[in-house]
C-alpha cells in the first residue's frame, strides 16, 4: 500500500526532481566555457611553474623571491653561465632551419 500512496509518490517525485536538478547544475558548471577556461589556465600555470623549476634545477639555479628594495642584488652569488644553453638553442634553430630549407628545395625538384 505504501507504494501506491499518492503523497509518498509525490515526495519521491519531488526528491528525484531535486536530485536531477543538482546533477544538471553540476554538469552545466563542469562544462561551462568559463570553468573550462579557468581549469585550463590553472593547468597551464602549474605546468609552466613546473617547467621553470625543472629548468632552474638543470641550470643549478634555485628560484627565490626577489626584493628590489634597498640596493638588493638579484643574484647573491655569481649569476649562472647561460652561454652553453643559448649556444645549444641557437644550434638547434640553425639545424632546424637548414632541414626545412633542404626539404623545400628537394620538393621543388
Helix fraction, binned, reads over 70%
Our estimate of the beta-strand percent is: under 5%
What is the CA-atom radius of gyration, in angstroms?
A: 30 Å
Q: Span from first to last CA?
A: 88 Å
Helix and strand element order: HHH
Q: Which structural class matches the secondary elements?
A: mainly alpha
The unreliable regions are: none
How many helices? The count is: 3
Offer a quick outline of the entry:
By secondary structure, the protein is mainly alpha-helical.
Give a description of the structure.
This protein is mainly α and 109 residues long. It has 3 helices and no strands. 0% of the residues are buried.
Describe the structure using short key phrases:
109 residues, 0% strand, elongated, mainly alpha
Amino acid at each position: 500500500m505504501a507504494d501506491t500512496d499518492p503523497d509518498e509518490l509525490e515526495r519521491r517525485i519531488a526528491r528525484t526532481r531535486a536530485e536531477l536538478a543538482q546533477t544538471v547544475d553540476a554538469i552545466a558548471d563542469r562544462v561551462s566555457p568559463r570553468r573550462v577556461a579557468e581549469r585550463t589556465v590553472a593547468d597551464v600555470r602549474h605546468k609552466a611553474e613546473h617547467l621553470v623549476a625543472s629548468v632552474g634545477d638543470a641550470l643549478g639555479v634555485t628560484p627565490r623571491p626577489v626584493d628590489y628594495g634597498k640596493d638588493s642584488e638579484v643574484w647573491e652569488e655569481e649569476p649562472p653561465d647561460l652561454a652553453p644553453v643559448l649556444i645549444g638553442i641557437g644550434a638547434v634553430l640553425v639545424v632546424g632551419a637548414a632541414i626545412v630549407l633542404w626539404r623545400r628545395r628537394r620538393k621543388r625538384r
